[in-house]
Design brief:
98 residues; 6 helices; 0% strand
């Protein structure tokens, strides 16, 4: 049982790290790009569907599988490793399509 609780704790830490990197980030460019990426949208659609089936209890991220959370964190870390200007340059189409 200790192994399972440790694993669960690590998953919670990963969720919190993801939230801090994207949702709590003061630089909106990261959040805009993150949630605009097709891979993220695909994963989030599945997560939100599960969350809605459960009556929107808790946070959507609480309904993500461990693999989904790890994929989202990997994407988030890749994004925040770049400066906002690098992000805008790389994903220019997201900022010029309006």
């Amino acid at each position: 049982m200790i192994f399972l609780s440790k694993k669960r704790e690590n998953l919670e830490e990963i969720k919190e790290e993801l939230v801090k990197l994207i949702d709590d980030c003061e630089e909106p460019v990261y959040k805009v790009v993150f949630y605009s990426l097709d891979e993220v949208k695909e994963i989030m659609d599945k997560i939100v569907e599960r969350w809605e089936r459960q009556g929107r209890q808790g946070r959507p991220i609480d309904y993500a599988t461990p693999d989904e959370i790890k994929k989202l964190l990997k994407i988030a870390k890749r994004l925040v490793s770049k400066t906002p200007s690098e992000i805008v340059s790389e994903y220019r189409e997201l900022f010029t399509s309006y």
